[in-house]
Amino acid sequence: MCILTLQEQTAETFVNDMKSLGFECDFSLHSLLNDIDVILSSSRISFDDKNPSGYRHLAGIQAYIGETLKRLYGGEWQGKFIIDTPESNFYTAYLSFGEFNFYPARFLTYRLGNGEALEGTFKAYLERVLPRIIGENNPQISSPQITAIKLKSIAPMVLVALSLFVVLTLAFTDVGKQQAIINWPEIDAFKAEMRILSVHPDEGYVYNRFVAMSERIPEILSLQRKSSNYDPDFVAMLSTWKASIDTARAFNSQVPKDCETWEAVFRLTWGEDEVLWDDDTNSLWALVLQFCEVSSSLIER
Question: What ranges do the domains of the chain cover?
């Protein structure tokens, strides 16, 4: 007798509920690309915690998305999946596909909280992240739909290359020091500048740029929600980090007074284990270290 996991049970219950309402929900890619957005917009289905069925549906759609991707591409559930308070799964439950971690609850949280007009469709989001889920180590799925999705993923890569070229050109010239990029049209342009600044030899320039970047984080976050290469995990962490900075400043007007303060704030957001940090996190950490060291020296003066 096969014993179902909590995620499998929750997904199966959701499938039965949705099929009774006329949705296909057959654990297929077609279902994810076509059913989810309609379900999220349906007036017949509640995800509100004030509705008795709201939490059941919220946990269900999280589990259904995760289980479908797991069955299709061989991922594994990690962390703790919670059905009583499914909003907690934003932090606690994810699937690992090689080196890529996918949190089913994260896009859903933004979409249900802010609406499709601001966050875009689940279909568009899935098409952006699916190449990372499939990965080089997973079996290649031969279908026109997957091929089309992979081709669509080339555009953000080209944008990253162009953004990096522009940032490199500006950052290492005298003109760049006077007229450095202030607006980042895509999140990857922001990440590209982080990487360049993390190895830039001019501490004063890095300090001034980082001040400008940190002050504009709320604006950066609002612009990225509709970005073609929107990275919800990075944006979520950046938002949390900004909130932590503001909290620290509320208690100490001279933050960062020393590197220990910033290290605590940073690790509170991105985690204690540096081995688990990706390249973007390491670049930001390098910037934080430079920034706090320069700040400390200014305070000492």
Answer: 6-152, 154-300
